[in-house]
Amino acid sequence: MNSMIEVRIPSMLRRLTGDAASVSAAGATVGEVIDNLEAEYAGIRSELLTEDNQIHRFVNIYLNDEDVRFLDKLDTAVSPGDVISILPAVAGGLPTGLKAAPPGLFPENGVFLAV
Asked: 63 and 82 in contact (C-beta within 8 Å)?
């Protein structure tokens, strides 16, 4: 059964969805939903998947609160009411050779999140 699934789009990919933060696509699996997203929003698939149909290492795809890499990857089944969230991987750290962050480099709460 192909359910309509809500897909939450990070800001860096919204140029492909007409600035929509959330879109819907049909599919029985995460992979089918991505294929149907591609039919509606050309170019989004290549932002998420490699040429050999693997999730890019710098992209995280969640079904509800579960990383699909720890489920059945693109073969993970979806159901009505499920939500797929696409999140860019967040990396951090200090530049090579820097032992401490210069004052003012990080905000008070120490959190940066770019989506």
From this structure: yes
Instruction: Tell me the CATH architecture of domain 3-88.
Output: Roll (3.10)
What's the confidence (pLDDT) of residue 113?
Answer: 44
Residue by residue, DSSP assigns the chain as --EEEEEE--GGGGGGTTT-SEEEEEESBHHHHHHHHHHHSTTHHHHHB-TTS-B-TTEEEEETTEEGGGTTGGG-B--TT-EEEEEE-----PPTT-SSPPTTSS-TT------
Backbone dihedral region of 105: left (phi > 0), alpha (psi from -120 to 50 degrees) or beta? alpha
* pTM greater than the 0.70 cutoff: yes
Residue identified by tokens 């709460």 is: 109
Q: Where are the domains of the chain?
A: 3-88
Whether residue 29 is predicted with pLDDT greater than 70 in this model: the reply is: yes
22: number of Cβ within 10 Å: 12
Token reading at 13? 């990919």
